[in-house]
Amino acid sequence: MNKFKLIFATLILTLLTVFATAKVFAQTAPTGTLIPNPTTVTIANSGSTDTGTSNISASWNNFTGTPVLCVAEPGTSGGADSVMASWSGASDTKTSNAPWITSGKTYTFKLFDNSSIACGGTQFATTTVTGANPMTGGTPSGSVSFRTGDVVTAVNNTTRNADWGDPVAAAPGQIIEFRMIVQNMTEGSVARDVLVKAHFASAASSNPQMTMSASANGVTVSDTATVNVSGGNTHLFVYESGHTRVFSPACPGGCNADDSFRDGGPINIGHLAFGESAQILFKAGITNPGPVTPAAVVCVPGTQTVNINQNANFTATGGNGTFSWSAPNGTPTSGSGASFATQYSTNGSKTVTVTSNGQNATCTVTVNVTGGGGTGGTTNNNTNTNTNTQNQTVNVTQAAAAQPAVAGAKVTALPKTGLPLTALLGLGGLPLGLALRKFSKGPAAENAPESIWEDRQIKISS
Question: Is 282 found in the same domain as 345?
Fold first, then answer.
């Protein structure tokens, strides 16, 4: 009986030892947690801020080293961890804020127990925070609306005898200042990266209009301001450099804008939350006098027919008096001036284009093979009907290449036929019906077009 009591006592002692050891181990094992608030950050944008804040609460127990809070943003520096905060003490709870949460990005936070202030060692907790997209108030990006009505107005900056209005009166040469008011009218929304443009009239008028537009989140608003110019002539607006200003939540004191605005380039005035507005102002002068619209360009003749390697001649009228020509596959293929001539080495329909002041006109050329009776130049169509019925052998010696002209050498003028007089006299000994046959070894070669020249037609181009 005493033996069983001893065994039972030993078992009880063993169990107490195990429980005590487990309790001690549980009390000394390090633990850590991270709690973000909030996990999804709504970007509270007021027109100039693109970021939001999440507060990261870190708790740790029984750390043997330094508690280190690190953060990694995927895509930035390869997603590497960087130290955000560090503390001291084996057990504690601390909060660190992350005010740089950006819309559409996710950040990963990690809690380490490290021997130094670095991202490494034993990791005890991790959590993520995401910047909401779209930003602000849960309203979709496209659900914005702008103030409408007379949002584009003008004032005569030369006389300054009236307030902003539409239309305004002016004389040639005076300066007009234009203004557009852009305001977000949708509650709980943000119009992001609002782009403003000015559209200068391209056609001169006695009452030219300036059109301006603003767009954001896929929504656009536009309006015009009219200037009634005295004198009855037509005019355009000329942008005044260095006078474009923007007043907005991002620039309440006014900022200068880029002069690319005059060429239709947009100005980014930033974000506009519900109720916020911006003003864009710039100046433009009235041309004095207005430009004259150039006459239409005309290519003459509109159609013509020529032979291969025969000049096709053209003239141009209208435009601004300066002309450029294009003749694909012609010789030459281009030219300038009021007149132009080109030749073609192949038959068919060809097109010649003349350009002046941005306007184009075309002429059509029909190119015939030799003997087609072209109309673009002078052709001798006399036919030699004398025929030599006998086969003759003609020895042809290739002429030497032409030598460069030598200074001081006397050149004898050629007759209008293009041959020296002695050559013409030499031709008198040949029959007029001369037939040239190309030597060959069979009838196929004799029938080739290039092997025989019968009933020769002599054509001389002047």
Answer: no
